[in-house]
Design brief:
- The chain has 3 domains: 184 residues, no CATH class; 162 residues, no CATH class; 66 residues, no CATH class.
- Helix content is 41%, strand content 14%.
- The N terminus is likely disordered.
- The longest helix is centred in the C-terminal third of the chain and has 30 residues.
- The chain starts with a helix and ends in a 30-residue tail after the last helix.
- The strands form 3 sheets. Strands 2, 5, 6, 7, 8 and 9 form a 6-stranded antiparallel sheet that branches. Strands 1-3-4 form a 3-stranded antiparallel sheet.
- A hairpin with a 5-residue loop joins strand 5 and strand 6.
């Protein structure tokens, strides 16, 4: 029995399965690897609401025991951690990769019947570290905690953060930084890059095993499709549907991921990796914040094109399983990609109609939407505040409303609303449900993280509270709805390790 089990209350045991289903895959997909542990693990933030929602009996545990468990410093003897292998197109270039600073610890099933992974990030070197120390700094780990929980509150599929812990160690990057570990939960850590890795091995049996595992994990109903090629095509369409949904959510709230590499594209349709991400303040169609996205590959609106590119890489990886005839396999994949393109564009229009309170389709809707975005860009209108003002029936109070072209657009929009019948309060309430009042403003996130790194946690806790119900107007958090002043503006975000 481990020290952690001895010091925990007798009624509380390690609440996760001590091995993961990932181990059922061939060994090229993983390596045995234990976390390095922490010199002096200390909980910085712990996600009690998530813990309760997932029915994990952790909230009442002694904090020192919890810190040792969730930092990987003291695990049950039966725990079998591992590091996953995968590949990825990073800014368009293919690379064989793997978890360079992450360890998959365990799995568990929530009350909703969904199986989830428990993973540590920043937990030390692995066989895939490529010269790195496998560690993470406190600021970036807190950033992932804040943004992932804000995304969940916005109703966007995402990996979740259970805890951030100080390790008691100092990392040296550009200067000394406090070390930290993030405890992350996700529906799985299967990536487009995992299938690219399998394809690069040129091992058909390994690729078949991976696809079978993915279907069992996320789409078990497809296992009953009798013809193998039809099953693969149905699975590709299912993955594409989830990814299209995800990207439309990002565009709905003005989110820019920043590193949409294929190794950061989850088969589950959850958002992963919050390194250089940011949210729009003023609307710029292909706004880029990430310091490493030097050519705008992952700009705001370009995310629609990139997700189709990433899905094309997934289809390429499974071509050998799609049809025995290479030409027929390629034809089926190309047809699917065209369908995804059409679906994405149609769904984008539908999403934008929802933001504008339109329940029906009209031929003129596309021009109405594009004219809105054009004047928002021209006058540098704040993305969130503009749509929220429309949802609050307060368009005339927009700073841009003084311009004749904007006044004309508002008249057109109101006339279009009236075509659908009486413009009731319920119509605006429906708009408010998809147009948030508050987002994680970049300048506010940076300010809270700077305070937390200095040991002052109150600003971070207040920020988390302000973002917990982002669609509800709350006078207590009015300041968190405000865009930055020129001096507060954040123009670059960084991956951070």
């Amino acid at each position: 029995m481990s020290a952690s089990e001895l010091s925990a209350p007798a009624s509380v045991k390690w609440p996760f399965q001590t091995t993961t289903s990932w181990r059922t895959l061939p060994t090229p997909f993983w390596s045995d690897c234990s976390p390095a542990g922490a010199a002096a693990p200390e909980l910085v933030v712990f996600n009690t609401p998530l813990c309760e929602a997932l029915n994990l009996p952790l909230a009442d545990m002694p904090r020192d025991v919890l810190a040792r468990w969730l930092s990987g410093s003291d695990l049950p003897d039966t725990c079998q951690p591992l590091a996953q292998a995968y590949a990825g197109h990073q800014f368009g270039g293919f690379t064989m990769l793997g978890d360079g600073r992450a360890h998959l610890l365990a799995e568990f099933e929530g009350p909703d019947g969904i199986r989830r992974d428990l993973q540590l990030k920043g937990s030390g070197r692995t066989p895939y570290s490529r010269g790195g120390d496998g560690r993470a700094a406190l600021g970036p780990m807190l950033r992932e905690f804040v943004i992932s929980e804000a995304m969940a509150a916005l109703g966007i599929p995402t990996s979740r953060s259970l805890a951030v812990l100080r390790t008691g160690e100092t990392l040296w990057r550009d200067g000394p930084l406090p070390g930290a570990v993030l405890t992350r939960i996700a529906a799985s850590h299967l990536r487009v890059g995992t299938f690219e890795y399998a394809a690069a091995l040129r091992d058909r049996s390994a690729l078949e095993a991976l696809l079978t595992y993915a279907v069992q994990r996320h789409d078990p109903d497809l296992a009953d499709v009798p013809e193998p090629g039809a099953r693969v095509l149905a699975w590709l369409n299912r993955v594409a549907e989830r990814q299209i949904d995800l990207i439309l959510h990002w565009l709905r709230v003005g989110f820019i991921h920043g590193v949409m590499n294929t190794d950061n594209t989850f088969i589950s349709g959850e958002t992963l990796d919050y390194g250089p991400c940011a949210f729009l303040d003023e609307f710029v169609p292909n706004k880029v914040f990430s310091s490493i996205d030097r050519h705008g590959r992952y700009g705001f609106e370009n995310q629609k094109r990139i997700i189709l590119w990433n899905l094309a890489r997934l289809a390429e990886a499974v071509l050998p399983l799609l049809d025995e005839d290479p030409k027929d396999a390629l034809d089926r994949a190309r047809t699917a990609l065209k369908n995804w393109d059409t679906r994405l564009n149609a769904r984008w229009l539908s999403m934008m109609r929802g933001k504008l309170g339109l329940d029906t389709e009209r031929p003129e809707d596309e021009s109405l939407i594009k004219d809105l975005l054009a004047w928002m860009h021209r006058y540098e209108a704040d993305y969130t505040l503009t749509f929220r003002a429309l949802a609050d029936d307060a368009a005339e109070r927009l700073p841009e409303a003084r311009h004749p072209k904007v006044q004309d657009w508002i008249r057109r929009w109101r006339a279009r609303l009236a075509e659908e019948g009486p413009v009731t309060a319920a119509r605006f309430e429906a708009m408010q449900a998809v147009n948030p009042a508050r987002i994680p403003r970049n300048h506010q996130v940076e300010a809270a993280l700077t305070s937390a790194e200095a040991g002052h946690m109150a600003p971070l806790r207040t920020l988390l509270a302000a973002l917990a119900e982002p669609y509800r107007d709350d006078p207590a958090y009015t300041a968190f709805a405000q865009p930055p002043t020129p001096d507060e503006r954040v123009v670059r975000t960084f991956c951070g390790t």
